[in-house]
Amino acid sequence: MSVPRIWYFYRGGLPADTTIITGGVYPFILGFVRDGAFASSLLIPIQLLYLLKIAEIMPDNIIKSLGVSLKIFFSLLLAIMMADVEFFRYFGFHCNITHLNFLNYTGHISSSFFEFSHPLSMVFELLIFPGLFLFVNLIISIQKFEKVFLSRYSFCISLFILTVGIVVQYVPLKTALITNLTENYNIAFVKHLVFGDEIKSSYSRSIEKILDTLPLDDERKNNQQWMYPDPEYPLLKATTHHLGKLGKLPDAVCNEDKDDDGYALKDDCNDLDENIYPGAYDIPRNGIDEDCSGCDAEPPNVILVHWEGVRAVNVDCIGYSVPSTPRFCDICEENGVLFTNAYCNGTQTRWSLISVYCSILPRLSTEWIFQYNLDLNLLSFPEILRRRGYETIYVHGGNIGFSNKLSRFAGWFETRYDRTNAPIKDMEMFNWGLKDRDLFEFAYSVMENRNDPRPFYMTIATLSMHHPFKLPEKEFEMNEHGDVKNQLSNIANYSDDALGVFLEKVLSNDKLENTIIIVASDHGINWFYPHPEREQNMLWEDLVWIPIALIGKNWNIEPGQKIDEIRQLADIGPTILDRLGIEVPNSFIGHSLLRRFDNRDSRAFFATANGGVSAGIRFRNHKYFTHFDTKKEYLYDIENDREEKFNLSEDPDYKEQRELYNSMVSDVYSQSTELIKENRIWNWEYWIEYENNDRNNN
C-alpha cells in the first residue's frame, strides 16, 4: 500500500525545500505506519473470525469467495491509489468525491490531465502494478500464511500497528503537502466523505463587522447612512432611503425632508444633498444619480477583462519576479489606475468568480457554489446592470458551462459566446480554447458590430494562462519554455501583448469613447517559481496576489496612479455600480475602488480547500494564513518581506497579531459557511419590493 507513495516520489520528486531524509524517507516511514494501521483495521476482523473459531464452521466456498473478493478489492484499491499519484501531481492534493465528480463536467480537464501524465506511466499505474498484485495473490492460497497472519500473536501485532498508526496521525509535520503525502489515501477519502472539509468556530464577532462591509464615503456628496436592517441576513445592507421606500421605517422618519428640497426621505434617493431629488438635472457621466432614476445619465459601456491566472509577482510595475507585462504597465501609467495590493478571494476560477460577480466570499470547501448551492439566493452586479437597461455579454474562448457556471450565467448574461457555439466553435482551438489574441480580436469585433442602442457590459475571459501552460506564440519566449520555472512568465508576456493591442484599440476608438475597463486576474498560480511549490494549497503571494486596474478616462479618477490600499476581487461589483451611480440594497462585502478608506483599515480574505482547508487575511502591513488540518501558521511583514522569506508566526513578539488574525479568519469563514448552507446571504424580498416600489413611483 505504500508503493504509490514511492511512485509519487519517483514521478513527482521531493517536496520543495526538503532533503531525501526530510522530504522522502521521513514522510515514507510515517505514511508506511499509517498504511499499516489501515491494513490492520481490515485484517483484524478476519483474524477474529479465526481466533473465535467462526471460520471453521463456514463453508469452504464462502471462505474462498471472500478471499478472492478481498484480493480483487485490494487490486482495484491499488489502481485507484496509483491513479491518485497523477491526480496529486496535477492538482496538488488527493482526489475525493467532489474532485472525481468535477472530472465529469467537461472533456477539457481530462485531455489536459492525460497530457500532463505519461501514457506508459498510466498503464503501469492502472494495469501492470495492480494486475501483478492480483496475479500473485490469486496463485497463493491463504492457508500458506495462516500461521503468520491468523495466529493470536499476529492479532496482537495488528492491534499494536493499528494503535501506533492512530498515534502517528497526531505527529506534527512541516508542511501541508507532506501532511497530505503521509496520509493514507483511503482514510483521507472516507474522512472527507463523512466529515467534509469545512471549518467551524465558536465566534464572538459578527461577520459583517470583521469584513467591514459598509460602503466608504464619497467626498463629492453627502452620504446617507447605510445600515444592516435584518439580523437573519447579516450581510444585507441598505440606506435609510431604501428602508423608507420599503416601509421599514416609521412614517415620521419616511416623511422627513432633511435637505429641504421638497422631497421626503422615502422618495429622495439622497435626503442629505439638496442637489439630488426626483426630476433634478442629472449631470451626465459624473457617477451620481442626481434625478433618482436609478442610474447616472449617459452611463458608460463597461468591459471586465478576466485575465486568467496572471500573477502580480510577474507584473513589471508591482511585482518582484520575472517582469512579463510591459504593455499592461505602460497603459496603466498613461490611462489607468493600478492597485498594487489586490488579492483574489478564491484560488481557482470556479471559486473566485463568485467574489467577482456577487461580492461575497466563496465557499471554503472543495464543493463550490456554482455546482453545490444552486438554490442559494445571490445578487450579482451583471443582473443589476441588465435590469438597469444594459446588454450583458460574456465572451469566453472555452466552455462557459465548465464547473457548472452556466447555471448562474444564463440569468446574468443576455448574450453569451463560447467554444460550444458559433462563431467561436468554428475557430482554431489551442489548449482549452481560443488563444488570447484570437479571443480579444473576436470580442473587439462584437463591440464594433453592435447595433443595439443600449450600453453594454462585457466580460472577456481569457484562457492562455492555464495548465498545461503551452506558449501560444514562440516569439514571446523570454526564457527556455521547457524549464517549468519559466512557463508562467513566458505565457504572461504573450498574453500581455494580446491584451495591450486590444486595450489600445478600444481606447483609440471614437465609437467606444464612453467606455470604462477593468482588468483583473481571477487568481495566481503556484508553479515552481518564485516559490518552489507547485501545489495550489499554499497561500503564497504567487497564488493570491493579483493585478487589478481601472483603465479609461471615464472612471472620473486621475490616471497614472498606483494605489497601495489592500483590495480584493469582491470590490469589482461595488466599483462598477458606484461609477454608474447605482445604489440598491445589497449583500456585497466589497468596497468601491473609486473611494478611499481614509480612517478605516482595508483588508482582504482568501482561502482554498485543496489539500486541506487553508485561509488567510491581508491586514495592515501583515499577511497571515493557516492550514487548519496541520494548524501550521504563516505570518509575514509583507511590506518589508514581499517574497515571504521570514515566517514570524513563532516569534513571541507577534503572538498578539497571530492570534488576532487567526480569530478573524476562523470567525469569518465559519460564519460564511453557515450563511451559505442556511441560504442567508441575500433576501430577494428586499429587491422585489424595492424595484416594485420604484416602478410604481415612476
Written description of the protein model:
There is one protein chain. This protein is of the alpha/beta class and 698 residues long. 41% of the residues lie in helices and 11% in strands. It is built from 24 helices and 14 strands. The strands form three sheets. An eight-stranded mixed beta sheet has the order 6-5-7-3-8-9-4-10, sandwiched between helices. β5, α18 and β6 form a beta-alpha-beta unit. The longest helix has 32 residues, at 20-51. The chain is globular. The model has no long low-confidence stretch (mean pLDDT 91).
Give the SSE map:
Blueprint: H1 3-12, H2 20-51, H3 60-91, H4 97-102, H5 107-116, H6 119-139, H7 146-149, H8 152-168, H9 176-182, H10 185-195, H11 207-211, E1 226-227, E2 238-239, H12 240-245, H13 251-254, E3 301-306, H14 326-335, E4 336-343, H15 349-358, H16 369-372, H17 381-387, E5 391-396, H18 406-412, E6 415-417, H19 436-448, E7 456-461, H20 487-507, E8 515-520, H21 541-544, E9 545-551, E10 562-568, H22 572-579, E11 603-608, E12 614-619, E13 622-627, E14 632-637, H23 655-677, H24 684-697
Parallel strand pairs: 3-7, 3-8, 4-10, 5-6, 5-7
Antiparallel strand pairs: 1-2, 4-9, 8-9, 11-12, 12-13, 13-14
Helix pairs in contact: 1-3, 2-8, 2-9, 3-6, 14-20, 19-20
